[in-house]
Amino acid sequence: MNANSLQTPIVYLKGVGPNRAETLQSELGIHTFQDLLNLFPNRYIDKTQYYKIGQLQRNSADVQIVGKIVHLKSVEQKKGKRLVASFVDETGEMELVWFRGQKWIRENIKINTPYVIFSKCNWFNGKFSMPHPEMELQKDHEQGLKVAMQPVYPSTEKLSNKGISNRVISKLVQQIFIETKGRFTETLSEKLLFELKLLPKSESLFNIHFPKNQELLAKAQFRLKFEELFYIQMQLIAKNMLHKKKIKGFNFDQVGILFNDFYKNHLPFELTGAQKRVIKEIRGDLGSNAQMNRLLQGDVGSGKTIVAVMAMLLAIDNGFQACLMAPTEILANQHYTGISELLEGTGITCSLLTGSVKKSARRPIHEQLESGELQILIGTHALLEDKVKFKNLGLAIVDEQHRFGVAQRSKLWHKNDIPPHILVMTATPIPRTLAMSLYGDLDVSTIDELPPGRKPIKTVHRFDSNRLKVFQFIRDEIKKGRQIYIVYPLIQESEALDYKDLMDGYESISRDFPLPDFQISIVHGQMKPADKEYEMSRFVKGETQIMVATTVIEVGVNVPNASVMIIESAERFGLSQLHQLRGRVGRGADQSFCILMTGNKLSTEAKTRLQTMVHTNDGFEIAEVDLKLRGPGDIMGTQQSGVLNLKIADIVKDNDILKTARYHAMQLLKDDPSLEKPENLVIRHAYSQLVKYKNIWNYIS
Ligand code: ADP
Ligand code: MG
Question: Which protein family is it in (predicted)?
Fold first, then answer.
């Protein structure tokens, strides 16, 4: 059967009909033969064994039994009725029970006729009972396709109510194989099949639905997972290549005076190997005639700022302006201060624009920006306002991309006729697997090395009951001249309560650390920006020793003398947030500490998070654990959660297959970008079919 006839509406499959077609559509999204063929089982059950009722154990797993129904009755219960059948074989008696779909069972079940039943057995009221068993007449069972492993398909309550059981679905799939003689168009090239020793398409589809043995099942799964990931990667990589061809960028071909002067005379430290490599990657993009769209990821403290500065110097050397946008005022201020310091003596002009910059101060900024006099602008969302017009913006850098939406990023594009180069920096490392799948169309640079001399932060978990000891520890550290962060959770849903916790905490800390020996700052989201700024600056200057705050300090704040991070109610924070918070310390030469405070009651997941934090400082490792705990949808935000709606592959577990698929997709497109070579026609055809019938798993926008 060719690919087109697999587009036949499912209603025309023998055994379906209008009613079932509608249910299959609404419940499983199955519209065509193809869709049903691509409904892959969730798991498989060993069906080679039969049990006798007399052999059953109280904790038996799924069992398969041959016997007859001798009696059927309705039993009234609190909520509605249940249907109960007495089921016997030569060794004993048990009950079969239905709560749903009773009418259908009553009308269709045959009394005193041999059935093969299958399900999990319960011990209930002194008897074995099996709720909602799978059932098949023994004579049909014997005629049916013999498989060692019975596939279990996704199911819903409505499906079972309508009598579309697992067995029925399996039968329908069988019907497709009968009508097509099980011959399906190959969708991968000979070369790939050969190189990766992949099972052919027809054999894979057969064995995924009717596995002949474990080995063939494993091969079928590998082939189909590979295929799924391969075509997604093809799409992403093709999109990236097209982007580079189509979207012209400014060509920064000069590595000029400013860049070289800075490198020789102003760089306050030796760059790490990773920083050098990343700068080289960025330079490559900037001189390539195409618009740069690069994600720069690097753990907190890995030194992304200097990379940003050097990229901005390249822009200025080529006669362009650059901007850097940060998600909060505090962070924008810090960037401005830090970068101004770095640029001292270079003659480069740099200004700050945030919501709290006064109108009178804005006018000159606007003017200098339009005249080109101002070379670097640092700020918050305020940069996106229409009034902010650049003479020639050549490079836009966005820090901490998780906080900005795609829409905001694209607003930056439209500040010019030709879009500026874009560099997105994030300290929340996206797990490699996700980066590969989601940002296949962005280029990714990674700083995977910390500047030398950093002492790893020591992280411990302490229960609230040990608070006194923790306070003593704080006192000792302050005596040594260190500064302390104490962070409280602030979750939108319980905002009022959280503020109360914060204020209660602040009061109790003020009591334990009284004036005049101790000075305390407090910063939270309900304060006016100016007040926040004031409190923050006292801490930065070392006038206060303790900073009590909500997560507003999460992003980017840099106070090297602060060496202790206390996180209250740590069980309520997500892993990436905990890691971000911890990154506020460990920036100076002293040994730093992170103390995770929690109550006694912890969920398993919370325990895993805490253990992960105690065990590692590696942001990538943490991101991978986070991905496993929360799943990709959560990590990327609901907006993109549908994105990874894979049919068979699992983005976390099938990481290796993903890498292989990406590698081969990349090779193929490098070698034959428009898939014109005869040996790639198969792929070209399959790809266009996928796109045409939207079977390409509705991938990224
Ligand atoms: P992040 O990647 O979190 O933005 P920063 O750019 O703020 O990190 O850098 C963190 C600290 O490390 C800063 O104080 C910076 O001056 C310092 N730093 C960055 N690169 C190096 C380096 N190669 N050697 C020494 N210190 C460095
Ligand atoms: Mg930073």
Answer: Belongs to the helicase family. RecG subfamily.
